[in-house]
Amino acid sequence: MRQGMIFVGIVVSAIAAVSLVRQFSAGKPGVFSSESYARAIENNRTDGRLLVVKLGADWCPPCREMDKTTFRDGRIEAWVNEHGRAISVDVDANRGVAAELGVRGIPTTILFHQGQEVARLTGGAGAEALLMWLERGRDEAERQARRERLEAARLEGTP
Question: Which candidate among 4, 68, 75, 155 keeps its CA 20 to 30 Å from the CA of 59?
């Protein structure tokens, strides 16, 4: 019995340590695909899923904080896995993308559906706030898709 409890304690400690290392390790969070913005937005036009684009820079404290905490939160990872995918764009290395998207401050997080922007968030956000924003954006994308389907049906019905 005692050996079993020790084993469980070791396993729990190892899981906690891996979680902490993952949360605070350097580098891009695993939630982000390695796709370029151009490829991601092109795929988004036809895949029917949502695309989360986080624009930031290595020198930006709120960007680093979101990478260290928000985008490593299991709820954010689960939401992205269920509803679409996410990419991270470095505004210094991709000035053209930042200009095309009209980024005026970082971090900026933009939600796309079918290649169209449906929601924008400028500034840092914790996991709870980002999750609420993502849900509102998903709802808006569904409303837009519903309106487009109704308009297409209406146009099909006209001679």
Answer: 75
Mean pLDDT of 50-65: 97
Q: Domains in the chain, ordered, with CATH?
A: 30-157 (3.40.30.10)
Burial class (CB in 10 A: 0-12, 13-18, 19+), 156: exposed
Number of alpha helices (DSSP H) and beta strands (DSSP E) in the chain: 6, 5
Consecutive H or E run containing 73: none
What does pTM read for this prediction?
Answer: 0.80
Reported as a single tens digit per residue, the pLDDT across 134-158 is 999 999 999 998 998 898 888 887 6
DSSP labels for 15-49?
Answer: HHHHHHHHHH-SS--TTEE---HHHHHHHHHHH-S
Predicted confidence at residue 11, as pLDDT, reads 46
125: left (phi over 0), alpha (psi -120 to 50) or beta: beta
pLDDT > 70? residue 1: no
Q: Is 104 helix (H, G, I), strand (E, B) or coil?
A: coil
Token pair 């290392």 is at which residue?
21
